[in-house]
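Anyone able to model this chain together with NAP?
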Amino acid sequence: MMKIDLFGKTACVTGAARGIGRDIAMTLSENGAKVIGIDLDKEGLEELKTVTKEETFILDVSDFNAVNGFKDEFLAKYEKCDILVNNAGITRDNLLMRMTENEWDKVLSVNLKSAFNMVSAFSRTLIKQKSGTIVNIASVIGIMGNAGQANYAASKGGLIAFTKSVAKEFASRGVTANAIAPGFIETKMTQALPENVREEYMKFIPLKKFGTPKDVAGIVLFLSSDLAKYVTGQVINCDGGMIM
Ligand code: NAP
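re: yes, here you go
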């Protein structure tokens, strides 16, 4: 059996200051990768740095020009990017009738445009390297939809379609792209939900427990490793069986 060893690999993880992104960054780092974390939260990044011992960047991933500036700085120092994890994401839930243009635009921009920004910025490098893997953190909501989350569902459904297109476009260059669709994972994002909503979700989870950021990080580790070198264009659900 192959052992997971990411030694010599450079990884870039967005939304790395807390929640799922933080565990992804820590897990890749624990397995030997140089992990560069990106987020808006300065304090969270400072804390991450004490563990990963690598640079972190305060960056709004929805800002096309800022992402391109970051890419230049990143490549000047690290020269390559082997693992790109697009994890940063937000919610601005509202019923469609009440949803504002700003709530729609903001969610699409942070959850979907950000992936375009990051992948397009690093596309030349990935293609030149003839290797690398992209992992996009989508959501089961992007597959099944959800009342009150039309913006979020559209962004995550779009992210899945984007992932498959990137997988097809980059496959001949040895670069893979996959998405993970988490269900209900215990983080700050879900802590905000009222108890009755949590109970409602639980009814649809056959494993009868919520997931943890580590559950998602384990799949990113697998996808980043040689174990998954023949896997591309896939969506892996991490949801306790919520949808099957
Ligand atoms: P979280 O706890 O809210 O963490 C998200 C991180 O992303 C925060 O540190 C946040 O920083 C950062 N971020 C937000 N906007 C950003 C931007 N424009 N540029 C850079 N960083 C930004 O969320 P999470 O629960 O870990 O979720 C991580 C990903 O998994 C998201 O894409 C989410 O949609 C997805 N997901 C989560 C669940 C779940 O149950 N938790 C389920 C399915 C999918 P600030 O707080 O400073 O803005």
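Residues 14-15, 17-21, 38-41, 44, 59-62, 87-90, 110, 137, 139, 182, 184-185, 187-190 surround NAP (CB under 6 Å).
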